[in-house]
């Protein structure tokens, strides 16, 4: 997983839980690089899982809540760092439609070793979209937060539900996004 995700995660922790919590997490996890993440380098995505579980233990917040909140934070960061991806689309559904075939394709040009999920979007009608998330890394909670953050960007009220499609793990999750 690209370092930008880790540097943003530590920023999120500092903002929401304080600087000391960042130090406590890095002490607890004891990685060989001592938490000195660089945005363009690549790290094992399981380190993010470790950091989230450690934060969950130390802050007493459920891990799924942390992953989702972090997704919202990351969406805001992406909107700041890559504004053109957002500005080129006028609606939430147009934006979500473009993640698989445009945005993540551009991300891959920027970071050729990025490990990206696969999305299939399907507009059921004008107010309902289903979005199928496929990834061996099982970060659907992050996807949920990114969808919520994008909805906020487009000032669109949504109802978001999700169901696991794959058996025994969360490699395939279906989201239903309904405009309210
Ligand atoms: C401008 C918008 C976006 C940008 C620039 C972007 C970029 C990225 C980058 C750099 C990564 C890390 C890849 C790696 O670590 O190797 C990533 C991963 C990911 N992206 Fe996006 N993304 C965007 C929008 C979205 C949206 C809207 C969603 C949800 C629908 C999404 C879902 C994910 C998920 C869940 C991952 C984690 C990897 C995985 O689950 O396998 N992204 N994205």
UniProtKB/TrEMBL annotation:
- In this chain the Heme NO-binding domain maps to 2-161
GO molecular function terms attached to this record: heme binding
Q: Which domain of life is it from?
A: Bacteria
Q: Which InterPro entries match?
A: H-NOX_domain_sf, Heme_NO-bd, NO_sig/Golgi_transp_ligand-bd
> What's the protein name?
Heme NO-binding domain-containing protein
Natural source organism: Allorhizobium borbori
């Amino acid at each position: 997983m690209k370092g930008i995700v880790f540097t943003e995660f530590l920023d999120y922790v500092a903002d929401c839980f304080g600087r000391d919590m960042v130090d406590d997490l890095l002490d607890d996890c004891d990685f060989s690089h001592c938490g000195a993440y660089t945005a363009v380098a690549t790290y094992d995505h399981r380190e993010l899982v470790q950091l989230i579980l450690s934060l969950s233990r130390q802050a007493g917040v459920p891990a799924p809540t942390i992953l989702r909140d972090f997704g919202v934070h990351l969406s805001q960061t992406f909107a700041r760092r890559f504004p053109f991806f957002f500005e080129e689309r006028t609606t939430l559904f147009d934006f979500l439609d473009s993640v698989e075939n445009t945005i993540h394709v551009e991300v891959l040009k920027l970071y050729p070793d990025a490990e990206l999920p696969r999305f299939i979007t399907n507009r059921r009608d004008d107010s309902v979209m289903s979005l199928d998330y496929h990834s061996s890394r099982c970060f659907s909670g992050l996807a949920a937060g990114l969808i919520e953050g994008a909805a906020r960007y487009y000032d669109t009220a949504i109802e978001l539900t999700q169901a696991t499609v794959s058996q025994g793990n969360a490699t395939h999750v279906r989201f239903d996004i309904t405009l309210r």
